[in-house]
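Sequence design from tokenized structure. All designs in this work follow the same two-part layout: the structure record, then the generated sequence. An example of the structure record is given first.
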């Protein structure tokens, strides 16, 4: 079907946001979209469409508002997620950083059932998942392997994770549940807040898109699709600026209830999708309550949050699965440990300049005594560059690139290597 509509969406549609927050949102959305999309749009992968249904015409503004107005909080289904960030597989890296070799539980390099270790697996490769949600207080996500399953269950103030391959479990108590419950009842009681500016629901993502839309962004409705047997509109978001690593983000939106069903992120350099995530099967009926209960099988090794020195209750108890997507937390972490920082430009070509305390850059290659997985990971990313700024190393992925100069400056953004060098030269 031919495109239905094109819109230069106005940021005032969201209301109540100051100029500073809009500018911040315009920077956050392009950078966050790859890491957060899997959480907000679904923790899901992409599937083939089965025809283009005939649907009433709808404008881009109206479709975004339909997402924002959706109150669907119950669903269950199966998804596939394919992620190609242009980095080595993170499966072994998490274990190496945790201090293991290949002798940890289940042969996973020392990694436990801790979600902080295991959810990094979704940052590369193709995975099949089962998901279920019954309001903001009950979610379940399971990563299915050939002969094993890893499940993450959130129920009220309790979070359980279980790895059937290694027969290990992880348990955390949501420390803030009581505080939230005291402040108010209703569907959001007991829910942990996400970092500022990081969307964790389809509604929150739609609000961020509205804030980010403007002179730097094209938002259109580009026909229809059918995903998991459901009719959907295709919302396409494209940068108008040059230099971005992102070509477009496409969201398939359920025509009936406004729930995002599929998300595809394409790189400006061409090639396969960076993220291709979508439902293969979905049901919006109330899920079986037993999905959100868990008792460790007899003999299971259980780790309580904080026992391994890496987490405590306040940090480990997510209010939703989106908190555990790799990279999402760092985007809202602020500038702790940073001597001076600023954002150069805006929208999709915005670049953050950071001056590191001590004016010491990182070495061009990983230390020889670092674990093999860490050396492989860092060495695969780095390119030596030079210019008016001096010399440095660009650590590259297909989405976010980082230039670290030898005198301790850092330039990072969802922009190409050439754009980073250009910004560093202009800032010198």
């Amino acid at each position: 079907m031919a495109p239905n509509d094109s819109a230069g969406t106005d940021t005032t549609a969201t209301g109540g946001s100051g100029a500073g927050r809009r500018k911040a949102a315009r920077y956050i959305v392009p950078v966050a979209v790859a890491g957060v999309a899997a959480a907000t749009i679904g923790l899901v992968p992409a599937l083939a469409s089965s025809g283009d249904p005939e649907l009433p015409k709808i404008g881009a503004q109206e479709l975004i508002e339909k997402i924002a107005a959706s109150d669907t909080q119950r669903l269950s289904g199966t998804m596939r997620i394919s992620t190609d960030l242009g980095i080595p597989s993170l499966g072994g890296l998490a274990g190496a950083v945790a201090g293991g070799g290949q002798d940890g539980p289940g042969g996973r390099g020392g990694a436990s059932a801790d979600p902080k270790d295991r959810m990094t697996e979704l940052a590369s490769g193709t995975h099949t998942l089962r998901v279920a949600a019954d309001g903001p207080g009950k979610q379940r996500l399971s990563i299915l392997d050939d002969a094993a399953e890893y499940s993450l269950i959130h129920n009220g103030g309790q979070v359980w994770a279980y790895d059937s391959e290694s027969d290990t479990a992880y348990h955390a108590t949501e420390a803030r549940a009581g505080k939230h419950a005291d402040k108010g009842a209703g569907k959001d009681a007991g829910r942990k807040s996400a970092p500022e500016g990081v969307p964790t629901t389809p509604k929150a993502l739609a609000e961020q898109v509205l804030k980010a839309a403007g002179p730097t962004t094209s938002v259109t409705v580009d026909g229809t699709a059918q995903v998991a047997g459901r009719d959907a509109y295709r919302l396409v978001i494209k940068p108008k600026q040059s230099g971005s690593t992102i070509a477009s983000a496409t969201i398939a939106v359920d025509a009936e209830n406004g729930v995002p069903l599929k998300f595809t992120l394409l790189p400006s350099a061409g090639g396969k999708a960076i993220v291709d995530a979508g439902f293969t099967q979905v049901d919006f009926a109330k899920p079986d309550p037993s999905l959100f209960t868990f008792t460790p099988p007899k003999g299971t090794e259980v780790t309580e949050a904080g026992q391994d020195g890496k987490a405590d209750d306040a940090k480990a108890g997510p209010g939703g699965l989106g908190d555990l997507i790799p990279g999402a937390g760092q985007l809202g972490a602020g500038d702790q440990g940073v001597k001076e920082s600023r954002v150069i430009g805006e929208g999709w070509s915005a670049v953050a300049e950071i001056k590191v305390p001590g004016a010491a850059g990182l070495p061009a290659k990983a230390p020889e005594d670092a674990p093999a997985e860490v050396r492989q990971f860092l060495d695969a990313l780095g390119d030596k560059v030079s210019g008016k700024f001096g010399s440095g190393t660009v650590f590259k992925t297909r989405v976010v690139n980082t230039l670290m100069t030898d005198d301790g400056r850092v330039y990072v953004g969802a922009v190409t290597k050439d754009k980073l060098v250009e910004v560093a030269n202009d800032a010198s």
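The chain is about 20% helix and 30% strand. We note this feature because it recurs in several other targets discussed in the main text.
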